[in-house]
Amino acid sequence: MRLSTVILPIHRWSEGQKTWQRAEELGFHTAYTYDHLSWRTFRDGPWFGALPTLTAAATATERIRLGTLVTSPNFRHPVTLAKELMALDDISGGRFTLGIGAGGNGFDATALGQEPWTPKERADRFAEFVPLLDRLLTEDAVTERGTFYSADEARNIPGCVQRPRLPFAVAATGPRGLKLAARYGQAWVTTGDPKIFETGTPEQSVAALRGQIEKLGKACADTGREVAELDKVLLTGFTPDRGRPLESVDAFVDFAGRHRELGFTEIVIHWPIPDSDFAADQMVFERIATEALAQLR
In the chain, what are the helix, strand and coil shares in percent, each to the nearest 5? Predict the structure, then answer.
């Protein structure tokens, strides 16, 4: 099992770069950030762009992988996104992973002046977005006419450092999204079942996650692919466990062990932010980063 972290883009780089460098020092596998224009309770405070932040992080680190959790079609277009991703993969020396999902009804959904899309509209766009992005990152020139997204001789030369392209970590729980994960993903991402976040129990969450993995397995089988080929990533903080796994090393080891048994290969924890939903003791957090995985072996 691998352990990664999410660093929210809330600090000016003069201060924020220290966090990314510390994440590398602590040995995290990947440091992700959210690709939003603003997000929930952080909306009225500082919030910087994901891709410039990750580009800066790439120049400030050497080994740690970097990524988004997650990029969505809410304010992205595959043609311009592909160009930026190709550059970021190059600048990082092939250390970038694209976490990608269908998006939701948050602030991103209306920031460009549009009405928020229905779940079906989001799924329709995502089903077109991912295959086109895959082509743009693997072919030198792409022409495509879609319902929502088109490309006209869009060039991406020399392509990604990682071949045939940088990896996709597809966030999905519904049948159409899981099918995209099975076909295009090198990893699958989930935050659990949102319907039981408020009132459910950790045991119910484990059962829900087991069901999601079973559905992913069926989607892979339908695509002619082994589900074991995909990494399975759990972004924590959105299950009924909430912040309890970060209360102690033992609590995290227990949490991670239960989810490893389900088949998860990567656990992602939020870098502590005081006075927020992601508040946690920094010293305990760093002990988890450096000690917990050894106790799982």
Answer: 45, 15, 40
